[in-house]
Automatic annotation (TrEMBL):
InterPro entries: BRAP2/ETP1_RRM, RING-H2_BRAP2, Znf_RING, Znf_RING/FYVE/PHD, Znf_UBP. Residues 470-481 have a biased composition (Basic residues). Residues 167-207 form the RING-type domain. GO terms for cellular component: cytoplasm. It comes from Spinacia oleracea (Spinach). Residues 447-481 are annotated as: Disordered. Residues 363-390 form a coiled coil. PANTHER family: BRAP2 RING ZNF UBP DOMAIN-CONTAINING PROTEIN 1 (PTHR24007:SF10), BRCA1-ASSOCIATED PROTEIN (PTHR24007). SUPFAM superfamilies: RING/U-box (SSF57850). It holds the Pfam family BRAP2. This is BRAP2 RING ZnF UBP domain-containing protein 1. One of its GO terms (molecular function) is ubiquitin protein ligase activity. It comes from the Eukaryota.
């Protein structure tokens, strides 16, 4: 379990932050958002049984969380947006800035209930603050926090605790069982990009690792051989096979973790062991399991008194091999999950491109078909207009022909009536002529023409005559003689 002691150099200053739109804190709750300045000292309980440290660490939880380092370019408002809706579960939000550290600041977060703290840890521990960058959010469960104005009290380790570095790079140099954070694939060697992302001037250990050509000497005896640097305070001293000034520094300050500048291994004076489960060979760059008690850098034991055939060494090797297997299984599962997500995104992208291409082809075909239909429609409209114009002309001609036919019929009717009248008139004339001729013949046939002289002429009964006879009889010169 972790605990924190802070050498505070000022009082709290309230922060006026704009909460994210997706966070809905209860109106009855009044969370505290403040900022303080000071130097953070991180402590962890001594690990007596590394094989059971994972289970004990998982059981040691609290509602107080500590974010080891937030890059300085990430403002407090950016941090609230990074946490999103989970900020509604926060009861205290304390930003701690160190004037001697320019590139980062730390954050203490207290939640209302343990379930919220667990959810906060699951969602943000190990997550990058910004996808294009390499800085990772490291979160630790903290048992207690103590603010003091005395630097000696803040730097003094509580009973049963050892101090850890607050530099995120130095924390990642340690074993996961020691630092409480997951180990990364990077070994943070010279000219490493992740170290250069943090301003290494704020950490002397990172500065020494970034500048291998500018190696210091022992702070006490001024030797340049077998140098170690304390990853807690940056003290540079010689190893126990020289004058042992690093060992004396641990006795004086209880800073038990020192980095060998030559091999980049971290030694734990409290446990008298290297803190790495996995060490890197400097000859071929391959990962090898080293004997934690052997002081030979080339891996060949026999001069330091620690044999490989001892039962203790065998048990230690077995635990380390098991730890290495678990770590690589975890890394393999993580990489497989990343590959699965990557290829699923490719499939989704390919499917989206296929859908878009099909939609484009269909849209193009529909557009072409619509244009063809529109052209045909315009042609049919023109044909329809032509037929309608022709129909109008034909209708007008039909009307004219009907008028002409009516006039012809009327003329023919008049001609027929005139002809009938003429026929009737001629028939009357013929009849009158016939009667006249018969009368003349009869008169000429009578021998005694004087016998009729002085006779009496009797009128004949009138016959119904047609208008034509009446007309004929009215004509002058038609009287009988």
């Amino acid at each position: 379990m972790f605990t924190i002691q802070i050498h505070s150099v000022d009082t709290e200053h309230p922060l006026f932050l704009s909460l994210p739109s997706n966070s809905n804190p209860s109106p009855n709750l009044n969370p505290k958002f403040v900022e303080r300045r000071g130097i953070v000292h991180l402590f962890r309980t001594l690990i007596r049984h590394p094989s059971t440290s994972d289970s004990s660490a998982s059981a040691a939880k609290s509602t107080l969380l500590y974010i080891v380092a937030v890059p300085n370019y990430f403002s407090s408002d950016d941090l609230l947006r990074f946490f999103g809706s989970h900020i509604a579960d926060v009861s205290e939000f304390i930003i701690i800035r160190n004037d001697g550290v320019e590139d980062r600041y730390s954050v203490l977060i207290r939640t209302w209930i343990q379930v919220s703290a667990d959810a906060f840890y699951r969602n943000f521990n190990g997550k990058r603050f910004s996808p294009p960058e390499v800085e990772i959010c490291h979160i630790l469960f903290v048992l207690s926090v103590e603010f003091t104005e005395l630097g000696e009290i803040a730097s003094t380790s509580p009973s049963g605790y050892v101090e850890l570095p607050t530099c995120p790079i130095c924390l990642e140099r340690l074993d996961q069982d020691t630092s409480g954070i997951q180990s990364t694939l990077c070994d943070h060697s010279f000219d490493c990009s992740c170290i250069s992302k943090w301003t290494y001037l704020s950490c002397q250990v990172c500065r020494l690792c970034q500048q291998p050509d500018d190696r210091p000497n022992c702070s006490v005896c001024d030797t340049s051989e077998n140098l170690w640097v304390c990853i807690i305070c940056g003290f540079v001293g010689c190893g126990r096979y020289k004058e042992g000034h690093t060992f004396r520094h641990w006795k004086d300050t209880q800073h038990c973790y020192s980095l060998n500048l030559e091999t980049q291994r971290v030694w734990d004076y409290e446990g008298d062991n290297y803190v790495h489960r996995l060490n890197h060979s400097k000859d071929d760059g391959k990962s090898v399991v080293g004997d934690p008690h052997c002081m030979s850098n080339d891996g060949e034991c026999g001069t330091c008194g620690h044999g490989e055939d001892s039962e203790m060494t065998g048990a230690l090797y077995g635990s380390k091999v098991e730890a290495i297997t678990d770590e690589y299984n975890h890394l393999l599962a993580t990489q497989l999950e990343n590959h699965r997500q990557y290829y699923e995104s490719l499939l989704v992208e390919a499917k989206s491109k296929k859908v878009n291409s099909v939609a484009e082809v269909v849209e193009k075909a529909v557009t072409t078909r619509m244009q063809d239909l529109h052209c045909k429609l315009e042609k049919y409209e023109e044909d329809k207009k032509t037929v309608m114009d022709m129909n109008c002309i034909l209708m007008k001609g039909q009307e004219e022909y009907k008028k002409k036919m009516k006039e012809i019929e009327e003329r023919e009717m008049k001609s027929l009536r005139s002809r009938d009248e003429q026929i009737l008139d001629l028939e009357e004339q013929i009849r009158d002529l016939t009667i006249y001729m018969e009368a003349q013949r009869k008169i000429s046939s009578i021998a005694d023409s004087d016998g009729i002289r002085g006779g009496t002429l009797l009128p004949m009964p009138q016959m119904q005559s047609s208008p034509a006879n009446t007309k004929r009889r009215t004509k002058p010169g038609r009287h009988r003689s």
